[in-house]
From TrEMBL:
Name of the protein: Superoxide dismutase
InterPro entries (alphabetical): Mn/Fe_SOD (IPR001189), Mn/Fe_SOD_BS (IPR019833), Mn/Fe_SOD_C (IPR019832), Mn/Fe_SOD_N (IPR019831), Mn/Fe_SOD_N_sf (IPR036324), SOD_C_sf (IPR036314)
The organism's taxonomic lineage, starting at the top: Bacteria, Bacillati, Bacillota, Clostridia, Lachnospirales
Domain called Manganese/iron superoxide dismutase C-terminal: residue spans: 102-200
Catalytic activity of the protein: 2 superoxide + 2 H(+) = H2O2 + O2
Xref: SUPFAM superfamilies: Fe,Mn superoxide dismutase (SOD), C-terminal domain, Fe,Mn superoxide dismutase (SOD), N-terminal domain
Length: 217
């Protein structure tokens, strides 16, 4: 997406039906074209009369939301977070033939969790534990260690100084048409379309970012 206001909803990097039978085409269409688009529209409407913020990136807005005017903080947090989280989610799943190439991230997962199966179990339990709406994330902390965390609603890990690697959206609109209220079935299907090649790219970027910060300090 573009770096600053007015923000746009980038097209999906695959066809709506590309992830079937794991995620159905109608869900992808509604999720992307309506839910995400609403967040983009609301974010732009909030920023419309704030010219001093028009050159701020989305991450800068989210990380500095408590410094903004009180009357726009909630909207920036909710709608800006909705834009960030959804784009990260959509870009982290794929039908790519190379999506299983996890690279160094695979080694880090085995080191941190003992084995891939243990990671899958812990991640699934975290995703199931989200009460109501939110996300489960694999992140990298300042010590370059992997962490699985959850966030409520449209909160993001970046405000906790955590670098996101991958995420699953567990709002019901992400799976209700196909799975009704069976979140566990959705999570199992989501595992089949995770783009580990993309996740590894994010992981390497996270390591580079935190290592560079250590060098500066």
């Amino acid at each position: 997406m573009n770096e600053h206001y007015p923000f746009v909803n980038p097209p999906l990097p695959y066809a709506y039906d590309a992830l079937e039978p794991c995620i159905d085409a109608l869900t992808m269409c509604l999720h992307h074209d309506r839910h995400l688009q609403t967040y983009v529209n609301n974010l732009n409407e909030t920023l419309k009369d704030c010219p001093d913020l028009h050159d701020w990136s989305l991450e800068r807005l989210l990380c500095n939301v408590d410094c903004l005017k009180k009357d726009i903080r909630r909207s920036i947090r909710n709608n800006g977070g909705g834009v960030f989280n959804h784009i990260f989610y959509f870009n982290g799943i794929s039908n790519s033939e190379t999506r299983c190439q996890a690279g160094k991230l695979y080694d880090a997962i085995v080191t941190e969790f003992g084995c891939v199966e243990a990671f899958f179990y812990e991640f699934k339990e975290k995703a199931l534990s989200v009460f109501g709406s939110g996300y489960a994330w694999l992140t990298v902390d300042q010590d370059c260690k992997l962490q699985i965390i959850t966030t409520a609603n449209q909160d993001t890990p970046i405000v906790q100084n955590l670098c996101p690697v991958l995420t699953i959206d567990v709002w019901e609109h992400a799976y209700y048409l196909m799975h009704y209220n069976d979140r566990e079935a959705y999570i199992q299907n989501w595992f089949n379309v995770v783009d580990w090649e993309c996740a590894n790219m994010h992981y390497m970027e996270c390591l580079e970012c935190f290592e560079c910060n250590k060098c500066r300090n």
